[in-house]
Amino acid sequence: MFPFLGLALVLIGGVLAFVLWPLRGGSAHVASEMPGSGSAAWEAGAALPLTRAALLARREALYAALRDAEFDHAMGKLATADYQALHRQLTREAAQVLRQLDHLTLDPETVYAQEIEQAVLRLRTAKEAATLSLPVEVREAVEAEVAQLIKRATIPDRPAERTCPHCGQICQPEDLFCMYCGARLGRQEPGSVS
Q: Across the chain, what does the average pLDDT equal?
């Protein structure tokens, strides 16, 4: 029975240490042990150059610490004054990490996307320059032709509507009978309007 009691006390002590560690500033001590990621180093801007992965990991750790502090404050485990001081410190460190991430070279996908955008911009400016070199008459003729094509594409070619000879209601060109009175409409020849 006594060995189980000792094991239970060790487990309870470990859980308490784990839960209370952030409250006594343990995360700042652990962070200061890592080279170039200590709180004082971040604030002074004297951190060693870090890789993008290290900065991303630090950013996620700071976001998690902010969420934990907010949760602890909401649960009443963290006093308001302590929460505000911790929130200011973590926010300041997160802002510095974000600034450093902004100054790093971009990942290859972003670089490729920027190169594609620049190539598209070059092609567009070259096309505009080639268009401007054409005579005015040719440009106006091309623009008129494009306007006509757009007009034809937006207005579908539909046959004219028909009216019922019996009740005078408008019917669809393909209808054989009036949908209002049921009268036979007769065949309409293509191009004729009733």
A: 76
